[in-house]
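Hi everyone, sorry if this is the wrong subforum. Our group has a chain we'd like a structural model of before ordering constructs, and none of us has done structure prediction before. Sequence below.
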Amino acid sequence: MVGIVDCHRGEHFAPLMLVMSGQEKHRLIRSLREVAEALVAAWPTDDGKEYIAAVKTCLDAIKGNIPAKAARTALLRAAEEAGIPVIAVVH
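Answer:
Right subforum, don't worry. Here is the predicted structure as tokens:
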């Protein structure tokens, strides 16, 4: 599974920074693996329509069924729903 996640790095996934509460205040997201980690390990809540959609979208992207940028978009919607500020990262 790690090989599938790593192949979705780069130009298809523009990095972003989540401004989270807790120990790791700024969380850099550059890959599907990091999207999954943020949603599962660091998200402030485990409910919400956009959160659940983001988890499902991320899993579909990891499986290769949809593009990685769809998971990024879903993460942005979930962050908005949860009130998590997002900073675009220029690379």
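For your construct planning: The radius of gyration is 12 Å. Strands lie at 16-19, 26-29, 86-88.
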